[in-house]
Design a protein that fits this description.
With 198 residues, the protein is an alpha+beta fold. It is built from two helices and eleven strands, in the order ββαββββαβββββ. 21% of the residues lie in helices and 34% in strands. The chain is elongated.
Length: 198
């Protein structure tokens, strides 16, 4: 054992290292490694995108086919769960555009009356889902609002203002659709949808 004056301990000769006698393979340099990574990404990304597109189209198809659409004639009423709904018409008193309206779009405001048939219907008015759809199948979200000061009661009409932003050229051709909320649509059965003709 050798004595190191810089250390206060004695050094073990077995701790001293020497070059490994086994020859090691040479690693790829950074350039080749990056080239292989780029080629792998070029091959894998389109495959992943295609798989996601196929999966998304399958889910979309399932979502669309699990609807039971009832067309409500103009001026008529339709029942959705425990609520009777009627489209009164379009509210033209407000401004068609606001500072948040995108270019080429206008705010469409529709007025719907909702009459709860029982106590469960009173609760489900606030969770109804509204959308507007054009003839080509494009769908836009619509946002309902009710007068919070008025209490909802069984057998009395509640006015619901539904606002959607749609392209200006489609304002007169879109139809309103109403779906039950998440609490009302359970199970594998088809979701009932009311589509109001105009």
């Amino acid at each position: 054992m050798s004595y190191d004056p810089l250390e206060w301990t004695t050094r073990d000769p077995l701790e001293e290292t020497s070059p490994d006698p086994i020859p090691r393979r040479r690693r790829l340099n950074d350039g080749w490694r990056h080239a292989i990574e780029v080629v792998a990404l070029i091959l894998l990304v389109p495959g992943l995108l295609a798989a996601e597109w196929v999966d998304g189209s399958k889910q979309s198809r399932q979502w669309q086919t699990k609807e039971r659409v009832t067309v409500v004639r103009r001026g008529g009423t339709g029942t959705l769960g425990h609520v009777k709904l009627r489209l009164l018409g379009r509210d033209t008193t407000g401004a068609l555009k606001s500072s948040t309206t995108p270019a080429g779009g206008v705010n469409l405001k529709l007025v719907v009356t909702a009459r709860p048939l029982d106590a469960q219907g009173v609760k489900s008015i606030d969770i109804l889902g509204f959308t507007v759809r054009d003839r080509a199948g494009h769908v836009w979200s619509a946002f309902p609002s009710t007068d919070r000061d008025r209490t909802k009661a069984v057998g009395t009409d509640t006015e619901v203002s539904v606002t959607a932003t749609v392209p200006e050229r489609l304002v007169s051709s879109v139809v309103l659709e109403v779906r039950p909320g998440a609490l009302a649509s359970k199970g594998p059965a088809a979701t009932p949808v009311l589509r109001f003709a105009h």
